[in-house]
Design brief:
The protein is an alpha/beta fold. It folds into two domains: 165 residues, NAD(P)-binding Rossmann-like Domain (Rossmann fold), CATH 3.40.50; 277 residues, Dihydrodipicolinate Reductase, domain 2. It contains 13 helices and 15 strands. The strands form two sheets. It has a nine-stranded mixed β-sheet with strand order 13-12-11-7-10-9-8-14-15. Strands 3-2-1-4-5-6 form a six-stranded parallel β-sheet, sandwiched between helices. Helix 9 packs antiparallel against helix 13.
Amino acid sequence: MNRREFLTQTSAAVAAASIFPRFAIGSSGPSANSKLNVAFIGAGGRAGGLIGGLTKENFVAFCDVDDERASSTYKKYPDVPRFKDFRRMLDALDKEIDAVCIATPDHTHFVGTYASMERGLHVLTEKPLTHNIWQARTLRKAAKRFKVITQMGNQGHATEGIRYVKEWYESGAIGDVKEIVALNGGPNFGPTRLFNKPTRFPPTSQAVPLHLNWDLWKGPTVEDVKYNEVYLPASWRGFYQFGNGQLGDWVCHTLDAPFWALNLGSPTAVDCIHKEQRTLEGIAPESSAIRFEFPKRGKLPAVTMTWYEGDWPDVQPEWGLDEWGDTRMLMIGESGSIATGARPNSPRLYPENIWQDFRRNLPEKRIPRIKGTHISEWVDAIKGDGPLPGSNFEYASRLTEMTLLGVLSQRFGRRIEWDDKRMRITNDDALNQFAREPVRRGWEMGDAVW
């Protein structure tokens, strides 16, 4: 964007924003004004779900580097100011914004989120929260420093299902849990799917389409990655430079329930026990199995948790299953198992006879239920009409750290031994560069909270 374009766009944005009443950020108690002024970093793709969940609020600005990807949003809301660079959007309008939704590729989650938080703006960021562990830990500290309301977009954490899992486990329904098994179908590669692969890596350079600002799309990435259509619109997630593979895309959903119910915290080690890499290096594998090792937590025993992606294990008799069916996660206890689908909806117990007895006398519902979605939960908290969201960054950053350790083990096909207090991999120092990745000049953020 040249100076003339920036000044023209900024003037129009400020003029349009002035019609929105200001919500009192930081004030206690219910809002005097019932609507939030919300801006969006990312206006296409996944942002559509966030926009749809916030239609009762004021939309102050949309920011997207790809006009084509955001075109349906722009068409539906033609009067809302548009930007390509979120930094310019925040500089121009931060006094008119209450809250920001970040729905961009994984590698730009952190920069958009932190830049919003340091301006005192509440944030809802899609999962996984960040692209590396240092970023996740920094957002956890930033939430305390800047005193804003935060939420990660793992919808299942707002459901009644995840509350059932925790209540049933804590009632002693299945006894102590020492093993967790989770299944995922694995990445499905193809030109029109969420995962795609080139004939060589890195892909050959292609002309950047006019509707896309490729330099802004790359964001903080240090590598001089050339544009290729294989990355967009959604298949970036299979390239470790930008995304975190199928594991990064789904662990925050499927393993949210056991992580919360068992208070798992940080693993001491993560091991890649299987990897089928018919794809090129640098791209998520067709199948893998990743094993997480968690230590004892007070009176709770040590836990082994295995994520199977692409290839599934045989059903073991002690799990209480006849076959896998729709089950995607099993918390395997001494006297039975709690199972959920890919998200923690509609949990149940196995084997069948235990379930039939248990459901006749379900434990008391002790955990407060959420009225609405994870989006409305966040809005209510901002307005003072509800408690802190369940997947706030204090919790979500820890779930994300666990996920990212699994991604590193999968990416490099090896065991990782982890020192959580020092935030270091202890058995391979070379891998620590991926716990905090370098960024290119102009994209440095977050050092202030350290």
